[in-house]
């Protein structure tokens, strides 16, 4: 009798390609359509309206123009640069004929999208490769192994506080300035530390990713989500802040307890790990060996780790205070690589080889990022996002306040899958959704909170976000993450509905 072959869940690459294929099919099934959009031209102080057919007209850059278009945003938001992206005009949706939707064109689009995604994501891809290179050099020098050995002695019996600290600190970064893509850089530091503490790599991924995801979901003053959405809704970004703070505190507490419970279970019995079969492979990948084999923690190795950690502090400061993005962050770590050469104790050829090997180790992560962007490109070209928003927004004006907030929350969960960009979803949807709050009789800040909560919750699992790139750091398959995260998602989702309902009642 033949034994049945055990089903192996596909890799992240296959998952994204399947999602890409599904989205491509949806572009055939869902009607195309667009809202007219309004942009502000600083030079001349004019508005430009572009209709769904691509035709443009200029209008006076005044408050009266906004009022006539039904856009309840203060003109100052445009004049002072608070809103820079085109804003959707309520009631302007038009269905469009699908162009070139033959099977041949669909096949061409499917194969072109990943390539276009790679081109479109070159900034973050370069960042990831440089991070991989510097990690390869630090690993080869023995600094990581020596440092982990020393840290494991200090943390003995207190490892769970590391989970608390990392989750909360990254959560604060997420809620204040939108710490998201930058977390890719943290994994090479955090994963070996958690492995040395007796946990599995899933704990490390969860502590970092959930901190960022929960912080972004309950953004308080995040300029890329809260501020843009509030400006677009025509309210102050502090309106409804206590609702978001409530979810932030409760959500981070729930995430931390959830991860600690799992981590302690794994520490007591490693076979309970969802990725137990990969333990040997992951330990080898991150140079986790017995304490007796650990190299000495010399002054040079200490200097390398101090420089490495300080570079992350500089990166966070640059992003938050100086407006850095991937070009500046990549340049920072490339510069740090040159400094590392002075302390690595490696010959020039060996140093360069290890940098290249380290970069190649993260090439798979970089490719996943590009593929995920390809999904978004197919969606944008298919012009189905506006159509989905149009139909979802219909028929909810007669609902009561609490039911309304709950339905809006679920609508944004759906929209969050199709539109991963927080600022992009805000300027597209908030002008359409905010007037519905007026009809139902709830404050507009409820719309802003529902938008953040819904898109943020979807961010825990959406393949077009950062989760597949995060899992690829240690080759964890998507099904393992789903098994780990779904119970927590249900808890956070219930919390979000309750907090939103409370906001409606007290508002």
From TrEMBL:
Regions that span the bilayer: 7-30, 124-149, 161-180, 186-210, 217-235, 241-260, 299-318, 324-343, 355-379, 399-420, 457-478, 484-506
Gene Ontology cellular-component annotations: plasma membrane
InterPro entries: C4_dicarb_anaerob_car-like, DASS-Related_Transporters
Main location: membrane
Pfam families registered for this protein in UniProt: DcuC
Cellular localisation: Cell membrane
Membrane topology term: Multi-pass membrane protein
Key words of the record: Cell membrane, Membrane, Transmembrane, Transmembrane helix
Name by which UniProt lists this protein: C4-dicarboxylate anaerobic carrier
Organism: Clostridium paraputrificum
